[in-house]
Amino acid sequence: MAARVLLRRRAAAPFMAATLVGGALIPSVALAEAPEDLSKKPIYDDFETPLPTATGPTPSPFSDTIPQTSTPPPSSSPYPPASDSKPRAPTPTDRLAVQIGRARLFLYQHATRAEDAVNAGMDRAFDLEQSFTSTVASLAPPRESGEKLMPGLVYVLVAGMAGSIVGRNRNILLRASLPLALGVGAGWLAIPVTMGNVAGLLWKYEQRFPAVADAHLRTRDGIARTWEMARVHSHLSRQYVDDKVTGARDAVEGWVKKGK
């Protein structure tokens, strides 16, 4: 029995040797890494890797041919496809960017307001300057009037100084009103056109205050009535004097005629 077993082993030894030699001479396909199992989940990824879908059978790692798989057509949308990942929390860089944006908007608003305030102030200053220059230009007499300001203003100044000298030893009312009255009177006599322009400008400013305008009107009417009454009384007085002088002369002439 043992002899039969030994004979079988000796008979099978040449075939086993041939098989080993054939395997060494004709190597089979060996892979450096094992084929990836797509059903397992990677331990270093936070999201699930979608399993590829293929229309054909799964290719064998030992085959040289790869079956053709159908790929989805590219999307025409300009936006990337929405992912199923969870929204991440804002980082410190994002919060810092938001704060910097708010600070820039705050500074921009205040800078814009300051610029608008400066522009409004400059506009008011330019308007005031233009109004002042136009007002001064409107007070000058026209060329066709033939009125000159220089000698007329000198006369007004001399009249005001004379009034202050005359009312120096008088009460405070005369010291305040006499130079003004003499200066205004000299102005109406020397530069009547300019004084008329000044009076019109003062009346425009007085119209902004109704109480002042009414007081001015009443004062002017009272002065006008007083002047008219003075003229009437002066005319009557002159006529009365003329009548008395004429009567006295006639009486003297009659006495002279009788004496002859």
TrEMBL record:
Compartment list: Mitochondrion inner membrane
Cytoplasm listed as a keyword: no
A Pfam family hit: ApoO
Signal peptide range: 1-32
Keywords associated with the record: Membrane, Mitochondrion, Mitochondrion inner membrane, Signal, Transmembrane, Transmembrane helix
GO annotation terms (biological process): cristae formation
Chief subcellular location: mitochondrion
Known role: Component of the MICOS complex, a large protein complex of the mitochondrial inner membrane that plays crucial roles in the maintenance of crista junctions, inner membrane architecture, and formation of contact sites to the outer membrane.
Name assigned to this protein: MICOS complex subunit
Organism: Neoarthrinium moseri
